[in-house]
Queue: 2 jobs
Job 1
Amino acid sequence: MEIPLAATLARADRDYLGAFQAMATPCEVRVETDDAELARRVTGAVEAEARRIEAKFSRYRDDSIIGRINAAGGRRTAVDAETAHLLDFAGQCFDLSGGMFDITSGALRRAWRFDGSDRIPGATDIKALQKLVGWNRVSWRDCCLTLPAGMEIDLGGLAKEYAVDRALAVARAITAAPVLVNFGGDLVVSGPRTGGARWHVAIASVEKDDALAGMLELASGALATSGDARRFLLKDGVRYSHILNPRTGWPVQDAPRSVTVAALSCVEAGMVATLAMLQGKRAEKFLKREGARAWCIR
Amino acid sequence: MQLKKRKAGRVGRAISAISATLLIATAASCENSAVAQDFYGLDKAGRDNFGPGIAYTEFDGALLIYQEAGGRVQAIEPTANLAIHGARGQQLTLGAVADAVSGATPNGAVPSDRTQTFVTPLKPQGSSTTVTSASGGSTVIQLPPTPGQVASAALGRQYTTAANTLPMDKGFRDHRAALTAGWSQPLGWISEIGGGGGFSREEDYQSITANVRAAKNFNSDNTTISLDLNGEFDSSFPFGGVPTGLSAMNAQFKPVTTRHKTQLGFVLGLTEVMTRNWLMALNYSYDSQKGYQTDPYRVISVVDPVSGEPTSTLYENRPERRKTQSLFWDNKLAFGPTVTELSYRYFTDDWGISSHTVEASERINLAKAWYVEPNVRFYHQNAANFYRAFLVSNAALPAFASSDTRLSRFDAITYGAKIGFRVSGRSELYVRADYYTQSGDGHPANAIGQLRRQDLFAGTKAAIVQVGYQWKFH
């Protein structure tokens, strides 16, 4: 299937900046080069990879692998290698987090709608939905995944970070020029800029739209941010973040407003940031204990 | 803001490792988008999805069948190995082997143009190693009584070898069971520290082994240096007792029933990732053995200096001390769709043996889940300085002598192939077949009389077939 591409390309200082919209977020790729044709090719390849991953793993599409798994109604679904690796990864993260990171927690969204309002679901609704949550309830063996009827999975918690890392791999296959891939704030660089300079990355403020909370310098690796800047419920002065604890069915309390983590890959940074958010008020402690390079905003 | 490097905790390290594994594994399957349509388990990259930091268990069960040409030794050997890998680099290994060996084995005497008769002690009734005259091709004989001997000890077993035939004892039958266990883990700055032990028991032999190991990775894990210390304590309690070296073969029970051997050694290892496609390992090992190393059942012929006819048969005798050294160089090369392994081993000891081994194998992935791995091995060794095909009756007896062809100068070639089928991404069924041939000098220049017309090299030709199943699971 040929995926139509829509990226724009512009000159920005020493870079060419390709931009497009995918995965419901603005995406950009910076290539440090004077070669416009090279930058166009890199941008095209990055956009194609982003759209491929979006199409393949979107839970909103019936024809995606996730759509097929969720619609299987208790029957088993055979999956391809790439999906299998992602499911393995998700299962390993479930184990490592003691069940806090769970790609089956999506059923809880039927009760929780994070629209900034004060609509808090009832405890009985949540209890009923919790029976449909738990990676330990699924059967994942060899090539096949079987979900009990009513359960669903959602790779949204790692697909964007995965797409960032894949996009960089695609770009690297085309050029050795310095590249930065940024999908909605989750980003990775191919290495230092020409001459060894670092990339400058701004952390967006959680309070105001265009304000900056700080600047980071990055020579290699990735950054990912987990936060509830614009997705929350507010009732009786309690702010309910959009991060749900699958073990209780309730949002995590006292989580930082945002956690930014630096790591070797975007997948790694994103997972550490997510697990930190799930720790609630112990987020900073967790990050310190795990030796993460991280910045929390409360 | 300067990013500072800090030491990651357990969860952080594990996430780092599994993230890297995810990206490496998916990179392979995404290189061609069409490849991603292949089902998991049939995919090349799907083979290993257990990265560092992930707890998993490996099981390997196999059945080996060994058959020597000419109706000699045959063996059936089931094996089972379990390796349990912890999330923090711990590893527990357990192994069990059983085998049943039977058949005929050359007794060490030279062939003759006349019928030859040999006598050995008779295995008592009720022993599982009792040899009947029907299956063993031997007969029970009454020994001339000696004063003070009990009646049953006066019985011997006698077997004959036809003219121009290699003398073989057909009463060879044994069972063996062995267990091994080992543990290793990282500890502080040491990348791997561990130890293990083993116990093996045959009807006439017992072996106890122990080892400790430490390894350190350097240079972003591209270099590993390791040291293994090994100890072994063996007991030999041959049927009929331990014969005195170079005494005449006879059917009497010997007064000494058990002899021991101790062995101490070490292996110094270096493993180096040379390039992305080339892994090299260099090992030096040293062993010192002390104690009984003679084959208690093996004999050597004493022949007439003119006719070459055997005049008597003596038990062999080997030195009690042996020091061995070896150097092993191994290379794994991954280019394109194949993996090549090339290795060379040099071995030398103070018995005068030195040997060279060159081995090559090539793993070729076939369509879908199949692969084939042909291999070939060449071996050459020089004789031990006490190796004698026979002794001559008018010459002085040497201190040590053995006619074991494994101590002679010979060449050996092994051809083989393994065919594997990946049942799923985590389990594999394989069949391996090898054919081994030894060739040596059957007509040495010092052959006398009738020996010039005999083949004095009793080398082995053997086929080995192994069927196995490997399974990895969480």
Job 2
Amino acid sequence: MTKKIEAIIREEKLNDVKQALREIGIVGMNVIEVRGHGRQGGIELAARTGTYYVDMLSKIQLNIVLSDHNVDKTVETIIKAARTGQTGDGLIFVTPVDQVYRIRTGERDKEALSYEGDIDTRRGSKNGPKAK
Amino acid sequence: MEAVIDTGDTAWILIATALVTMMTPALGFFYGGMVRKKNLLSTLNLSFITMGLIGVQWVLYGYTLAFGPTQGGWIGGLDFLGLNGVGAAPDPNYSATIPAIAFAAFQMTFAVITPALITGAFVERIRFRTFLVFTLLWATVIYAPLAHWVWAVGGVLRTYGALDFAGGTVVHIAAGFSALAFALVIRGRRGYGSISIEPNNIPLTVLGAGLLWVGWFGFNGGSALGANGLAFTALMNTNVAAAAAAVVWMLLAWSDKKPSVLGIVTGAVVGLVAITPAAGFVTPLAAILIGAVGAPISYYSIKFIHSRRLDESLDVWGCHGMAGMWGALATGLFATKSINEFGADGLFYGNPNQFVIQLVAAVGAAIFAFVLTFVIAKGLDKILGLSVSESEEEVGLDVSEHGERAYA
């Protein structure tokens, strides 16, 4: 079973999250610059005089597609790396993915998702090979 | 006395004319950065097309209305229609050492930027064709007479003794109070006060402010009409007033929240406005004070307008009207003949009467510009409509008025 993780995180946490994911063997991801807000609503920015209210905040959405059994570890890693404890840390959604195709080879599903040095090939090794 | 062209003076006015010409597109960037992305081209264009409109109007009849032989002190006669007779020979009434056409060209750049300043009041919802008519009318019935009163030989305010070195009254008070009047007539932007209207590109505003600062050396330095010590006094005063105002504004914004860059560059422009009427009449130390005091006057004027929920969108009244008013009054306080023998002494140099003269001239010009603009705007609203429809505004003026978008 294939899953998709959509993680909405703080812009400034992208590098930390990317690094942490590489360390567990998650290399492939898409990053989308998104705007929005959660329950904190927005923030005040400095204007010419005083402040003004901005309700569409810049966030990063990470999209990662992976096999079911790797979801928990990946989500834990993202939470650990992206968390500050302040409002606005973001949300993670996990949804099922019906099919995956790799355009270059025509492979599908699990084959389309696996590559050398990925999270499955380094299971059992504590540090695992360094991803490029 | 035979008038002889001075090539140094002429070369400086050539450069100063180019510098002030640059200020109008620079103003477009200054304003353009502060609007939403969907109105960026529209806002840039309100300044740019003014170079087109007034560039023609000035040659055809603007110059002669402003600087033709006076008709009772109120307006220029039509002798210079189409710049007839305005050529290489100097006009000793204005400057004996540069060609008359150099003076006309230099003055043209002021006539262009002044209506462009007003556009900050109505960006993001103005109907373009109405704007074109307004700008031509405004240049004709407000700018030309005012320039005549203040600067022309025999003009009523010049004869009365009012000092305006480079346009504090003619340019900034006129534009600022006209902007206020226009904002009172045109409807505000949709959602003003309830949704956040965010500047699309503050770096553009910083770029514009930087170019305005440089251009202002031509604006104020060139108003000495010669390559001489007075030009450099004006330039130094201009720089130090902008510098002081930028620093003071930074502190004001910091005490409210953070030292915003938008605030700092606004402060610089306000300092430039405030020193404009005084640049060639005061000492550099007085210029620091003029800039430093101009910043809070403008800052709190803007806050006041915001508290009244009036959508005078880019604070033209606060920045130009009120800082211009302060500059005109400050000229009456700090002017000294030791800087400029053709000026006057102000209140702090033993001549309180100069302050009264400045007050009368500045307030008179403000009322004239405000009332007439209000009437013109009301009339145009009836005949042509001032603003686009709400759906056109939602889409943005770039697409709805110009059929373009700023970015692909």
